[in-house]
Design a protein that fits this description.
mainly alpha; 11 helices
Length: 172
C-alpha cells in the first residue's frame, strides 16, 4: 500500500498482486487527501478524544484506585465486587446509548464519547493492585510528618507505581 501510494496511478492499476517497488514517484494522492478540510477536523477530533479520555480516565482511575486500596475504607470489598461484576457483565451498546442520550443528555456532544470511555474496571483493578503493593509504612511515616492524603498519593504513591501508570496510559 505504501509503495502504491507513492507510485503513478495508471501504473498501479495495471499491476496485480503485491506491489514491492515505486514506479513514477509522485505525491498527488497525498495532496488531494490533505486538501480536504474534513481530514483535518477528523484528526482534531481524534486528538481531543484520545487526550481527553486518557487524561480524565487516568485521573478518575487513580483517584478510585487509591480510595479502594486503603485498608481503612470500609466498603472497599463490596464496591470492588460491583466493579468486577460490571467487567464481566456489561449492559451493552443499547443501554449505553440510552444512558448517554436520555439520562445524561449528552447527545451530539464530544462528552458523549469521552465520558463513557473514561473508566475501565480492568484498569482500576490494575491501579488498585499496584497501590496495594506499596508498603503501608510509607504512608504512615508520611502522615506522621504531616502529609495529607493528596500529598501522599501524588508525591509518594504515584512515583512508586510509574510503570503501572505508563501501562494504563498506553491502554487508554
Amino acid at each position: 500500500v505504501l509503495c502504491a501510494s507513492f507510485s503513478d496511478a495508471s501504473w498501479v492499476l495495471g499491476q496485480s498482486g503485491i506491489i514491492w517497488r515505486i514506479e513514477g514517484f509522485n505525491v498527488n494522492g497525498y495532496k488531494l487527501v490533505f486538501a480536504n478540510q474534513n481530514i483535518w477536523s477528523g484528526y482534531f477530533n481524534t486528538l481531543i478524544y484520545v487526550f481527553g479520555t486518557t487524561a480524565l480516565g487516568m485521573f478518575l482511575t487513580v483517584m478510585a484506585g487509591y480510595a479502594l486500596s486503603r485498608k481503612d475504607f470500609l466498603w472497599a470489598n463490596p464496591i470492588m465486587f460491583l466493579i468486577s461484576f460490571t467487567m464481566l457483565f456489561s449492559g451493552g451498546i443499547v443501554t449505553t446509548y440510552i444512558l448517554v442520550t436520555q439520562y445524561l443528555h449528552m447527545y451530539d456532544s464530544r462528552w458523549a464519547l469521552i465520558i463513557p470511555g473514561c473508566m475501565s474496571a480492568f484498569y482500576l483493578i490494575l491501579v488498585r493492585t499496584a497501590l496495594n503493593n506499596v508498603p503501608e509504612s510509607l504512608e504512615e511515616s508520611a502522615m506522621l510528618d504531616g502529609a495529607g492524603r493528596f500529598t501522599i498519593l501524588f508525591k509518594i504513591m504515584l512515583p512508586l507505581i510509574k510503570s503501572t501508570l505508563a501501562t494504563v496510559i498506553l491502554y487508554y
